[in-house]
């Protein structure tokens, strides 16, 4: 039996960053940028107005007050999206909209609120004079050329994880396609004679295959594409054929068939069709985890994560091992799931020196985080995963944790940064 860290180390040693591809901008959300992206022009491309107001010269308004307004001659209007056609001189103003190019000569925009604009609108008067009530400082309400992005600078470095903000930045520099690291395809195979697939008729002595769905959902949640291979029988021929169906994927995940029972033949097939790197990890749930590589006819290998069949064990071992493996393939650098310190409000007894991942519900109160167990912790009780938002970690070296102890909790719903 090896530790969680050793097991993860062996898995990560074997998976590598996938090759790059070019994709339409929006489809790149959640992928890693594969090249340094430089800005082809300045953003904003020119000085422009940050407010709806009047573009003027500071000299014309610097002494303006409500009692002694500066009275300026309005020489025109400048909406956004049009070239600037005016030159502002002392004593003149251009009525300007947010985002419109700043006319030559102007060095400040006075917002409508600091003028008699609303009175003019109310009176429906089209005046060529505007009253300015405040001498706001030079440069105010102007967005300077390049204040966001300077032409030629690195805007999105290689390896950046593309979130909605990065998609926006790439759009702002006119990118329609982006080089990204390809998404891994993860083949998912359920094993077990007792399983029928959802949508099929279920005899009373059978159960539905839920693992393929919870695992595929986890794969999708972390930005990869699942390839569901259905259910294989606990029989060498059928299971071998089914496993071979998954060899075109970047990772094959099986669930079930890795324990000590008579029908647990997944690891035998892994040994025959490839190479086992480890079996059994010092954790609970999830001890009978198998990992290795399967050989393909073309000589290449495919990593194979043989997860335990119990629905909770399958989900937790995916979270601890499958998730970092696929994130690495996607070129992600930070593989750490956010972990917090929380006061455990229940006691946990550790009977067999394994690291326990206990399902908890974490709440935040004034003084910090508190975690309570989500009820019975059997590894077949999938609803206890559904009612959990975290996994509290009880170290393998600790025999008993008493209520009130501070523990590490992996926050299942939080994203790695
Ligand atoms: P195994 O590891 O194959 O012995 O399976 C352990 C337990 O998990 C058994 O009770 C199985 O019926 C159950 N199990 C295995 N695979 C699945 C699955 N795909 N969906 C739901 N339960 C499963
Ligand atoms: Mg089984």
Account of the protein in words:
It is built from nine helices and 27 strands. By secondary structure, the chain is an alpha/beta fold. The strands form eight sheets. It has a six-stranded mixed sheet with strand order 15-12-16-20-19-17, with helices on both faces. A five-stranded mixed sheet has the order 7-4-6-5-8. It has a five-stranded mixed barrel with strand order 21-24-23-25-27. The model has no long low-confidence stretch (mean pLDDT 97). The structure holds adenosine monophosphate and magnesium ion. Residues 190, 192, 194-195, 207, 209-212, 255-257, 259, 261, 308-311, 380 line the site of adenosine monophosphate (AMP).
